[in-house]
Structures are given as structure tokens and as C-alpha cells.
Amino acid sequence: MSLDQTLTALADPTRRAILAQLARGETRVTSVAAPFTISLNSGLVRRRIAGREHFLSFDPAPMNEALTWMETHRRFWTQRLDALEAALRAEDAARAAGSLRRALRRRSRR
Fold first, then answer.
1. Which class for 56: exposed (0-12), middle (13-18), buried (19 or more C-beta within 10 A)?
2. Which domains does the chain carry?
3. What is the dihedral of CA 17, 22, 24, 27, to 10 degrees?
4. What's the pLDDT tens digit per position in 16-72?
5. Which of 62, 73, 85, 90 gives a 20 to 30 Å CA spacing to 19?
6. Distance between CA 79 and CA 75 in Å, rounded?
7. At what angle do helices 3-11 and 13-23 cross, to 10 degrees?
8. What are the Cα distances from residue 105, in Å, to 40, 92, 96, 98?
9. Quick check: 53 and 12 in contact, CB under 8 A?
């Protein structure tokens, strides 16, 4: 199971609905009304076989890798965007100070 497979499974509304159904409890394969191959490959769904019956249940463990990936990128981009904001504010402040100095010099010449 990989991060890509987990995110692919979570990206599709039908698959998310299947996972929500499985999160409420184990379900027979025959009661799942949509394709679930990708969800099974993602590791988000566990299959248990009892005789001729196949049961599915939700396994949230692969989501931890997805959460770690998202949190790492959230922190990275938050830091970058905060730095960009600070640089733009400093640039705006420098421009404003320069404009103010020029206006004061013009007034003092009069």
C-alpha cells in the first residue's frame, strides 16, 4: 500500500462513501454496491473470509502516512508563505517610507 493509492481511494466520493460505510462496521462484499478494488489496494479496506462469505472492514492505518505527508507539506508551505508575506510587507513599508521622505523634501523646498 502506498500514499498514492491511499490518496486515490480518498479522492473519489464513491470510495469515500464505501469507507464511511465500512467505518460503521464490517460489511459483506456483496452489500457494497460500487467497485472497491482501488480501496482494497490502498490498504484502507481489510478483507476477511469466513467460509463462502467475504467481509470487509475499514482500516485507517494507511491514512497516517497521508496525514504525515499533508502535515509536512502544510508546514512547508505555511513557512514559505509567511516568509513571502513578511517580505512583501517590508517592501511595502520601504516604499511608503520612501514616498513619505520624498513628499517631506518637496514640502521643505517650498
1. buried
2. 3-62 (1.10.10.10)
3. 120
4. 888 888 888 888 777 775 555 555 666 788 888 899 888 888 888 888 888 888 899
5. 73
6. 6
7. 100
8. 73, 20, 14, 11
9. no
Quick one: angle between helices 3-11 and 61-109, nearest 10?
Answer: 80
Length of the chain: 110
What's the whole-model pTM score?
A: 0.48
- The torsion angle over the Cα atoms of residues 3, 27, 22 and 66, rounded to 10 degrees, is -10
